[in-house]
Write a structure and sequence with these properties.
Layout (H helix, E strand, L loop, with lengths): L2 E12 L2 E7 L9 E2 L2 E3 L6 H13 L3 E13 L6 E12 L12 E7 L1 H5 L5 H4 L4
Parallel strand pairs: 1-6
Antiparallel strand pairs: 1-2, 1-4, 2-3, 2-7, 5-6
Length: 130
């Protein structure tokens, strides 16, 4: 039986642009742009994960507005693992500055989906762009 890892990401928009963050060069998938989010911990609801991860990675306070997409794929490192990701539409509770978590992400940008498509993205992020 293949193990599973669950991820939750947030689609945060301001003025028609979506927040993308770039993984630190020394991190897994370093240099690639992604949506803020991360691993669902044991016993945690994905909706709670995305709120927690966005706060940790960007300093933003958000609430879940709905589910945007789901995606699954095999582990890119070849482990017997299936990755399941849920992307949530999230709304900011207050419009603060983005404050990145050093060592995890080194840059952020508010991009249209078309602009994001021109960046180096993990395949699971590219698949959900409209």
């Amino acid at each position: 039986m293949t193990a599973e890892k669950n991820l939750a990401y947030g689609w945060i928009t301001r003025a028609g642009r979506v927040l993308f963050i770039r993984r630190d060069p020394g991190a897994f998938l370093g240099g690639r742009w992604e949506l803020p989010g991360g691993t669902v911990e044991k016993g945690e609801l994905p909706e709670k994960t995305v709120i927690r991860e966005i706060a940790e990675e960007t300093g933003l306070k958000v609430r879940v507005a709905g589910e945007r997409a789901k995606s699954s794929w095999p582990d890119i490192g070849g482990k017997p693992l299936t990755i399941n990701a849920t992307i949530f539409d999230v709304a900011e509770e207050s419009f603060g500055d983005v404050v990145l978590n050093p060592g995890e992400h080194d840059e952020y940008a508010w991009l249209t989906p078309a602009e994001a498509a021109q960046r180096e993205l993990p395949e699971h992020v590219r698949r959900i762009l409209p």
